[in-house]
Amino acid sequence: MARVTGIGGVFLRSRDPARLAAWYRDNLGVPMSEKGAVTFHWLDTATTDRPGTTTMALFAQDTDYIGEPHQRTMLNLRVDDLPSLMAKLKARGVEVLPDTEDSEFGRFGWCVDPEGNRIELWEPAEGM
Question: Which residues form the signal peptide (predicted)?
Answer without folding.
Answer: none
